[in-house]
Specification:
- The chain is an alpha/beta fold.
- The chain is about 30% helix and about 20% strand.
- The chain has eleven helices and 16 strands.
- The chain has a ten-stranded mixed beta sheet with strand order 4-5-6-7-10-11-12-13-14-15, with helices on one face.
- It is elongated and about 70 Å long.
- Bound molecules: S-adenosyl-L-homocysteine.
- The site of S-adenosyl-L-homocysteine has 17 residues, from strand 11 and strand 13.
- The site of S-adenosyl-L-homocysteine (SAH) has 17 residues, from strand 11 and strand 13.
Length: about 375
């Protein structure tokens, strides 16, 4: 039985209890399944287990959403699948192209809610920036998604589905590309679905993503970071630091108030890294708030002895965000100061700002509008 309820609670963070998917449809949704689960469904239908691999390939590697296009399955099996299973796929309902080549996709989900994903063509690799929640509960004061609040978690199928659809739309199925979990939402607040989505994306019969090609960005939820460090498949880790004192961090990220910077840094020191890997520390630069010479010194001191690199994110300004972006000179000064202290530092080039696709600018207006929002397609509806 596939769980239809988005669960998962973290202490101190509000999580609405919501149900997702087709409530009236008890058929298994194959888009939600890992290879072993798909095998169970297929063998329960009386079919040989190797058909599960064929279906998984069609679905994830080829992006097929209908059983009748799965031409190496017998007619009989396709008909059985059609009767007894569904495939739910997020639907692209708008696509915008930035002057710099970045593209923003709006997806409509099964319950009419919408999320955004971004394709960045040259970072220098091809990168898909994917959402893990509708909205976000973390309330970061400089982030538009944070202002939406959390509507609900995404399911594993919806997270992996963004990649499945974009890989097909952008014809990336036979190309190497990277994934960053930096769209809407806090991936570690939706831990189980996020990790399941990564297992689906990593499956050799699917897109076969390797951990090196995936970066998970987190505000730093400690219990979930500890869990992540026990996984066998661990993506690159990016931690949103954004401040060098507890006072400023608690102001910028209200949901971090239960946490001390020193504990976050300790958790990062414990995080398992492979031979050459490093943790990325993201640091949004806010004029006059966290961009002083003293901040740069404290930041270098905090990271001493850690295998770290710092990614500076000069604020992407937006109406309603009560901060401003420091001047380019100030950003440069901050970066130089870190570099002088031996910290590896880069400045994130802002991409897709003209289509509001840059960091912290993903926001979808309103919730599902009754009757007007299209439902996500299932295989039977096409
Ligand atoms: N919830 C995850 C992913 C957030 S998006 C996290 O907190 O890490 C990826 C990065 O963009 C985060 O570091 C986030 O803090 C940053 N960000 C959010 N709003 C921004 C803005 N307006 N300008 C620049 N960076 C922003």
């Amino acid at each position: 039985m596939i769980p239809r309820e988005a669960r998962l609670h973290q202490p101190g963070i509000k999580t609405p209890r919501v149900t997702v998917g087709h409530m009236d449809d008890e058929r298994p949704d194959l888009a939600e399944l890992e290879p072993s689960e798909l095998e169970s469904v297929v063998t329960a239908l009386g079919a040989d287990r190797f058909h599960a691999r064929q279906i998984f390939r069609w679905l994830h590697r080829r992006g097929r959403e209908r059983f009748d296009g799965m031409t190496d399955l017998s007619r009989h099996l396709r008909a059985r699948l059609d009767e007894t299973c569904t495939i739910t796929t997020p639907v692209v309902t708008s696509r915008e192209r930035s002057s710099d080549g970045t593209q923003k996709f709006l997806f409509t989900l099964g319950d009419g809610r919408t999320i955004e994903s971004v394709f960045i063509p040259d970072t220098p690799a091809l990168t898909l920036c994917v959402s893990t929640q509708v909205g976000c509960a973390m309330q970061c004061g400089f982030c538009l998604t944070g202002q939406m609040g959390l509507a609900r978690h995404l399911t594993a199928g919806e997270i992996a589905g963004q990649v499945r659809v974009l890989a097909r739309e952008l014809e990336l199925q036979d190309t190497r590309f990277n994934i960053v979990l930096m769209g809407m939402g806090e991936p570690l607040h939706n831990y189980d679905a996020t990790m399941k989505a990564l297992r689906i994306l990593a499956a050799p019969d699917g897109l076969a993503l390797t951990p090196k090609r995936v970066t998970l960005s987190t505000v730093g939820l400690l219990p979930a970071m500890a869990r992540l460090s026990e996984e066998t498949w661990i993506p690159n880790l990016a931690v949103s630091l954004h401040a060098t004192t507890d006072r400023i961090r608690h102001e910028l990220i209200p949901t971090s108030r239960q946490q001390r910077l020193s504990d976050l840094i300790t958790a990062c020191r414990r995080f398992p890294l492979k031979h050459r890997d490093r943790i990325t520390f993201e640091y949004v630069l806010l004029d006059g708030i966290n961009d002083t010479a003293a901040d740069a010194r404290r930041l270098a001191r905090l990271l001493r002895g850690l295998r770290a690199k710092v990614n500076l994110l000069p604020l992407n300004e937006a109406p309603g965000i009560p901060f401003s972006r420091p001047s380019d000179e100030q950003v440069e000064r901050f970066a130089r100061s870190l570099a002088r202290s031996g910290v590896t530092v880069s400045v994130r080039k802002s991409r897709g700002r003209d289509i509001r696709a840059a960091c912290g600018q993903l926001i979808v207006d309103g919730g599902p509008r009754a009757g007007s929002a299209p439902r996500a397609r299932s295989a039977q509806e096409q």
